[in-house]
Inverse folding.
């Protein structure tokens, strides 16, 4: 009672926020059970009084008291995860891996590379470093094939990483040695060992690899421009 209805941080704003949160959480049962709250929201939006009356406060308290058991019951079937901080911003790893690349680079990658880099970020965020490494390496190899084939004017999808790098090293005028050497380092240091079942990455190795793969990808795309 006496709380502002429509001001910032008001009763109405809290109702809207609550309904939005249960939608975002996928609490379909609670959302259906909240019909009375939706009705109250509509009434408060049309209310002429600036502050909550005693009757309105009583109605709101009754609605939330009746809705609480449904909310708690549905919440028991929901798992929550706490993600530890990484060297990279968590929001980038989970939702926007493009922000870790040079401006516009991700949009120029093959679709499979974009998907694999996005998956690698999620795996890294949720502490699945070996899976993250697989996705990073697949993505980098897809970019390498695009880079190599465009430079030598070939349309082949079965080229091997080692063969492409050796060919690049034999054509320093077409392929800057720094890029060829970096890709060879990734192949020897990460890709080849990853092919063996006993290789397991820890979270620091996976983050190191992501940095290297991003740098190599940026260099290849920028050299193609």
């Amino acid at each position: 009672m006496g709380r502002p209805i429509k001001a910032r941080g008001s009763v109405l704003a809290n109702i809207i926020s609550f309904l939005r949160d249960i939608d975002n959480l996928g609490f379909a049962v609670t959302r259906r059970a909240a019909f009375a709250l939706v009705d109250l929201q509509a009434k408060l939006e049309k209310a002429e009084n600036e502050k909550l009356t005693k009757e309105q406060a009583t109605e709101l308290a009754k609605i939330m008291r009746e809705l609480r058991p449904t909310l708690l019951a549905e919440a028991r079937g929901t798992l929550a995860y706490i993600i530890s901080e990484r060297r990279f911003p968590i929001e980038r790893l989970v939702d926007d891996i493009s922000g870790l690349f040079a401006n516009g680079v991700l949009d120029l990658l093959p679709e499979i590379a974009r998907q694999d880099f996005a998956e690698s970020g999620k795996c890294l965020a949720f502490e699945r470093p070996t899976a993250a490494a697989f996705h990073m390496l697949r993505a980098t190899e897809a970019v390498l094939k695009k880079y190599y084939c465009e430079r030598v004017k070939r349309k082949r999808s079965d080229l091997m990483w080692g063969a492409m790098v050796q060919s690049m090293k034999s054509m320093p005028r077409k392929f800057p040695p720094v890029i060829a050497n970096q890709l060879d380092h990734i192949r020897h240091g990460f890709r080849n060992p990853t092919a063996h079942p006993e290789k397991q990455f820890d979270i620091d190795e996976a983050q190191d690899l992501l940095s290297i793969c991003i740098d190599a990808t940026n260099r290849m795309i920028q050299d193609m421009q």
Observations:
- The two ends are 64 Å apart (CA to CA).
- The mean pLDDT is 88.
